[in-house]
Structures are given as C-alpha cells and as structure tokens.
C-alpha cells in the first residue's frame, strides 16, 4: 500500500476541511477544490444511474465539443466505464489508465487514437464513488502527454478522499429524499426558525396559531429525523450548505 507523504497528507486534510464549508453546488465545488489543491485542471464529475452507467457530467476546463465527442460514440471505448472494470472496483476505487491496460497497448486502441489524442489528451484517472456497494458517481481527471502522469501518490490520496465523498453524496441523496417530503408551509417555518424567531413570532409572521407552528415543527422533526429545534438548526447549518436558510431547497447534485 502506498504511504502518503506529509505534503500529500496535508492536501487530503485540506480537501476534507474545504468540503465542510457551506456550498450549494457540490460537484462543481469538488472539482474546483481538486484543481486548487492537487493541480487536476481538467476533470468531469459524473453521476451513476441505477444501471451503473455514468451520466449527467459536470465539466471543469473540458470544452463542450470534447464532451459531445465523448458522448456521441467515443465513450464505448473508454476502459474506465464501470461495466468494463467491475472486477477491479471490488478492491480499488481509483484507477489510472495504466492500471487497466498497458500504455503501449492503450496507444494502439481506438479510445486513444479516435478520442484522447484527437483532443490533445493522454493520461486518465478515475475515482469511483461507491457507498455500501452502490455506485453513486465517478470523477475523471485527464492530462496531456506533455503533463506529468498521475502517480501512485495521486491514487493513494484519492482512495482516502473518495471514501469521504461517498459518505457526503449518500447523505445528500438522503437529504434530497427528506426535503421532497417537506411542504411549502413547513419550509417557511424552517426558514423562520433559522432566523431565530420564536414560535410566537413565527405564528405572527405566517398568520397561523402557535399550536399550528408546533404541529409543523413536530412534522419537520420527524421528516428530517431530528429530536428538537437545536438539532434541526445544527443539521441545516452543517450539511454542506444544502439547507441554508434561503429559498434554495434543491439538492444541487444534478446539473442544470
């Protein structure tokens, strides 16, 4: 097992610290943080559908025409597609192209000649986000041949980070399901709770009785799986900014 250097370890810790900051666009924030901390300048963050296909990519410094070319036929040649490497994913969650196929052979294959080389790319590394055996998504990093290759230290760092991200994404999916069950009136109550209003003040603001406010809060606690007002506020403020007190209630995993 590759041992992280102190520099790499610091990058991993800084990445996790950065993910604790309030954010509204989870996937874009992840890619930008990788760029800032690890110099991964070109990347895509995919989600996985129920058939383990990678879909709905978010791009960072990858041109739209490159993505279109990939989606319109070249993806079938990609050795990193989950269906091609299921046996490897049982042990590893981060794979470079050379971990799948020798580079000499790769250079003779259609994926390299018809897609990667065409767009000035050579190296590829993908981190698969898996939680409790379910594939949630994947982050693909690419570099040109003139850039430095992805190293075993990169793989070791990402193996740690991707496990952290798998928990974050699983939590976001769970929260999305919870939020879908929240009514419009309950959302209004939550926003006022976040602003520090008392039950009496909420009742006056929404022109409802204190009893109705308490009933809404009971329903909210049950739906969001929290025991009380304090726990509710803590959850709203400490889940990657997902539930910050404004009108942005959508879990921003999907692209626009």
What does this structure look like?
The protein has 256 residues and is an alpha+beta fold. It folds into two domains: 6-173, GAF domain (Beta-Lactamase, 2-Layer Sandwich); 181-237, Arc Repressor Mutant, subunit A (Orthogonal Bundle), CATH 1.10.10. It has eleven helices and five strands; from the N terminus they run ααββααβααββααααα. A five-stranded antiparallel β-sheet has the order 2-1-5-4-3, with helices on one face. Helix 1 runs antiparallel to helix 2 (26-38), helix 1 packs parallel to helix 7 (152-180) and helix 8 (184-194) crosses helix 10 (210-224).
Concise account of the structure shown:
Helices cover 48% and strands 14% of the residues. By secondary structure, the chain is of the alpha+beta class. It has two domains: 6-173, 2-Layer Sandwich (Beta-Lactamase); 181-237, Arc Repressor Mutant, subunit A (Orthogonal Bundle), CATH 1.10.10.
| Arithmetic mean of pLDDT | 87
**Major sheet size, sense and barrel closure:** 5 strands, antiparallel
Write the H/E string, N to C: HHEEHHEHHEEHHHHH
Low-confidence stretches: 240-256
Order of strands, main sheet, comes to 2-1-5-4-3
Instruction: Bin the strand percentage.
Output: 5-15%
Q: Let me know the CATH homologous superfamily of the largest domain.
A: GAF domain
Class inferred from helices and paired strands: alpha+beta
Morphology: elongated
CATH hierarchy class name of the largest domain: Alpha Beta
Helix content: 40-55%
**Terminal CA distance:** 39 Å
CATH fold-level assignment of the largest domain? Beta-Lactamase
Radius of gyration: 22 Å
Q: CATH architecture of the largest domain, please?
A: 2-Layer Sandwich
Please tell me the total number of domains. 2
Strand tally, please?
5
Number of helices: 11
């Amino acid at each position: 097992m590759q041992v992280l250097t102190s520099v790499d370890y610091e990058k991993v810790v800084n990445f996790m610290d950065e993910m604790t900051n309030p954010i509204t666009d989870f996937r874009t924030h992840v890619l930008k943080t990788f760029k800032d901390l690890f110099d991964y300048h070109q990347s895509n963050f995919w989600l996985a559908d129920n058939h383990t296909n990678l879909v709905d990519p978010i791009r960072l410094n990858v041109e739209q025409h490159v993505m279109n070319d990939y989606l319109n036929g070249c993806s079938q040649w990609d050795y990193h597609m989950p269906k091609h490497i299921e046996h490897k994913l049982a042990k590893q969650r981060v794979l470079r192209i050379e971990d799948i196929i020798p580079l000499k052979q790769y250079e003779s294959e259609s994926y390299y000649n018809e897609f990667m080389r065409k767009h000035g790319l050579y190296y590829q590394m993908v981190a698969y986000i898996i939680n409790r055996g379910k594939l949630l998504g994947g982050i693909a990093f690419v570099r040109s041949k003139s850039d430095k290759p992805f190293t075993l230290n990169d793989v070791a760092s990402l193996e740690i980070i991707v496990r952290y991200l798998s928990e974050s994404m699983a939590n976001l999916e769970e929260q999305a399901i919870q939020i879908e069950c929240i009514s419009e009136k309950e959302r209004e109550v939550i926003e006022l709770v976040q602003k520090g209003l008392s039950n009496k003040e909420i009742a006056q603001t929404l022109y409802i009785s204190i009893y109705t406010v308490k009933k809404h809060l009971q329903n909210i606690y049950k739906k969001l799986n929290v025991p009380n007002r304090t726990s509710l506020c803590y959850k709203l403020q400490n889940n990657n900014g997902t539930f910050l007190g404004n009108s942005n209630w959508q879990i921003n995993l999907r692209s626009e």
